[in-house]
Amino acid sequence: MKLHVGWIGKTKEAAIAKLTAEYLKRIGHYIDVQSHEFKSEQAMLEFVERERVRPSVVVMDERGVQLSSLDFSKFISRYQERGTQALLFVIGPADGFSENTRKAADNMLSLGKMILAHELARVVLLEQLYRAFTILKGHPYHRGD
Fold first, then answer.
1. Is the residue at 101 inside a domain?
2. What CA–CA distances, in Å, run from 132 to 20, 26, 49, 68, 110?
3. Residue 113 in this model has a pLDDT that exceeds 70
4. Which of 34, 45, 105, 123, CA to CA, is 20 to 30 A from 53?
5. Residue 86, domain extent
């Protein structure tokens, strides 16, 4: 499975860019991962449609399902077990996703009830993706139950 992680909008903070690169590198030890910086939701939707293998799309949205880290790892594992070839997680723009994008998504997850700045949400998502893969591989990074 190929993992895509995308976000809408340019990265403004150098610290966010550095953390993004660090977590993408860590995730890359477990799975083929590619990042995408989309100009708009429409650009993201067009990317999905023109990909040779259409990725399953998971939008991160405050209205989405909340999962524990363990449940998130199981969520990813189910995609792997089904033979999904590509999976795209997307962080929305500062004002959130449009209803059109939410409807086009295969799944909608939430990082929690609190609203996060979209650049910070990206780092949280990347850390949770890294954590999920360490859980799946039995790595001691995740020490919770």
1. yes
2. 16, 12, 27, 10, 15
3. yes
4. 123
5. 2-136
- CATH number of the domain residue 112 falls in: 3.40.1280.10
Backbone angles phi, psi at 10, to 5 degrees: -80, 150
- Cα separation values, 83 from 53, 67, 72, 78, 134, Å: 12, 22, 17, 9, 20
Using one digit for the tens of pLDDT, what is the confidence trace for 27-79? 999 999 999 999 999 999 999 999 999 999 999 999 999 999 999 999 999 99
Q: How many domains does the chain have?
A: 1
Q: Residue 141 domain-assigned?
A: no
Return contacts of 133-142, CB within 8 angstroms, 24+ apart.
Answer: 133/27, 133/30, 133/31, 133/73, 133/76, 134/30, 135/69, 135/70, 135/73, 136/30, 136/73, 136/76, 136/77, 137/30, 142/69
Supply the pTM of this predicted model.
0.95
Evaluate whether 11 touches 38 at the Cβ level (below 8 Å): no
Q: Is residue 144 part of a domain?
A: no
Flag whether 142 is in a domain.
Answer: no
